[in-house]
Records
---
Amino acid sequence: MNQIKRGEFLIKPFLKRNNLRALYQIISTVIPIISLWLIVHQIINSSLLPLSKGFLLIPILCLLTLLSSRTFSLMHDCGHNSLFEKRRFNNLFGFLLGILNGIPQKPWSVDHAFHHRNNGNWEIYKGPIDVLSLDEYKVLSKKKKLFYKLSRHWLMLFPGGFFYLVIKPRLGLILIIFNITKSISKETLIKIKKGDYSELFNIKSRIKPPFSDYGDNFDELFDLITNNIIVIIGWIFMSKWLGVAFFLIFYSIISTLSAAILICIFFVQHNYENTYASKTQNWDIVNGAIEGSSNLNLPNWLNWFLADISFHSIHHLSESIPNYNLRACHEANIHLLHQAKVLYLKDFPKCFKYIIWDSKNEKLIPIS
């Protein structure tokens, strides 16, 4: 592999953030979402036949799904502190966009930053689906091998998407509260009575997998709790406004499809034939960015809904580049991206075969 140095890339001119552009992106996403929900209310309360209502709701459902994906992409930028000029604005709007997505933004962004720090090092970061090494896979029983293969099938994007946006943040809070309550010993209660709260507030020692990415410290825990309270209140309001059954079904479909799109995009941007799949000893962060992140050749309209995350190599090279500068930065450095993989929509299905890490040969491989 050619060793390309980060200094060879033209990055600095594209790091400039613009509050007006960022605010416009937020407004041009949120207002259509509000407008579409108002239209949904009008449709379901109209005198139209149920079949006619269904035909009218399908395109709205598709638009809300895509706008939800865009909302998540903008939240992702806020997590990188790259959308607005000031961190406080990124934190504020990231939190608000997290509410729209039903996911706590701060703990999510901390977990996502780990991915950026270790991309291409498959000894440390196992991708979005916890890829097993070849050695780990070989020692599994036949039943577990079959389960592993089926659970990583592309069809699992849909139940996985529902779990990721609708269930996991809520379940994470429940399990954290349970673990904290369970871990309070008699000795701790005695200390509390004496006014010593230090052990009670030792949050990190009380958080256990698999939800440790939700609430590792007080800031994250506060975000988790606040997000859940506001989201659940929002669900109650929307249920009263649109009807419980209709809202929960409609909302669940949107969340499921939106999360499935995002997980799919994230997956194919890192799991594909000949992706950079190094051990820690041989890992290089620039190679991980360029050769371990595919760039997607997608229609412009779809790129808009994904906030140009298709230009993924450059994004991994510098996550501080705002999404509205990614395309220009990509084009300015195209001569240095000959090692980067380019994928088309037709290439996506075969990416889901690469779910085993061959640590000896440092590559992802299909299950034989």
---
Amino acid sequence: MFYGSIPAEVQSMMGKIVKNWDVSDVYIGCSGNFTVEKLICPFGKFNIHSNDVTLYSRCLGDYHSGQPVELELSEEGCWKFPWMQKYLESDSDKVASLMLATRLVAYDDKLNHYYEKMLNEYISQWPRLHDDTKAKVEKSELSISSYYNGDVMDYIADAPREAGFISYPPFENAGKAFVKDFAKLEKVFRFTPPEYEFFDRDLLIEFYGRIAQMKRWLFVTNIQLEDERFKPFLCGKSKTTNRGIPIYVYSNSGTVQIVTPNQATLPLNLKRLMPGEEVGGKMTLWELSSEAFQTLRSTYMNINIRPGQATLALAVMVDDKLVGVYAFAAGPTMAQWDAHIDTPTMYLLSDFPVAPTDYDRLAKLVLIAALSKESRILAERITRKRVKSLITTAFTSKPASMKYRGLFKMLSRKENSALEEKWGKEIDPSNRYYSQPYEINYGAAIGQWTLAEGLEMWKSKHSQKSGKKEND
């Protein structure tokens, strides 16, 4: 639930830097889930002061600073969850209930039998979960000296300059998504949020400038700053996957630390379709190892697309030359497509052509191969059940994706909210692919033709060479 949670590698960098600080007080802006506090408290040498704007952080801040925890059900909370009242007696009861409620509200108000079942099951297990969570809360050794619930810009203005200051603020333009995460929680309990500004690029830079005025300081961001005030103080970079968000650590102390991705790849001795070459006459499918798929994905797939975990990846070959790749994901899904398309379905996780070539619509040949009878046999082999259709998702700047048009049926189209979804929390908000206005689900029957028939169909309908690529 916590947008911008601090990766373990970055926590390690921060710990090495802060451990040697020569200050008695450390102020932490945008505390969130108190990860930084938990990191530096065991050093036993700092008076820790925390800050944020949410109900969740306020209750944790009050509890760990020894202040009374003010938490009571709202009118809506009393109506929906009246049984929760008896779990709000002591301060540790309240904190435990608040923590559990972050999951409870995630299942609430969703018109879906799955979520209804999850909500009822969660409520039935609440007494046990509450006992376990309360025990963990009471066992915590985190201790802070003070907590301020309000705008971090006001907070840093009042912080003494001889102190240390640490912040991992929400990424640029991500603050609204962060607050939206807590909106449902804050309807269940009484809470009047403080006034504060959301961070845009200019306000973030101003905030970093104020941090840099402290005796010891550290901040973490997804922006590599070109401002001369900060460039000399870049002392850490973490990027744990090839397409993950790069995270930069700036501080006026500490040595340079770098964490780079280690992706298992495989040197491939595959010939591919090249510019000036014609597509041949025999199409086949070759199974790819995970390493081979990752190599090809890194070479040809849109760099902005976050890679998922493939169950089976396949190379589309024509006359033993690679023309593209697609992959299936066979995991369970909560989506219900029965009203739109024949089920059971398989999810088409990735599909991309090689590049560059002379053909505008080579991407359609990859899709045609994925919808073939031979492809269906492979899909059914890994699921050990019938597969009648493929489902996939596209993020586009237009109301329809040209790549899927004519082969796949549009099942749903909605305003893109990927960056606000749980799975999208670690995507860079500036990512151009996931920032496009439309999210469209497509589906098509699998097994409509053989590979040979599909290749002939592509040649007759889609083999033009005008130079206008149709890969999106």
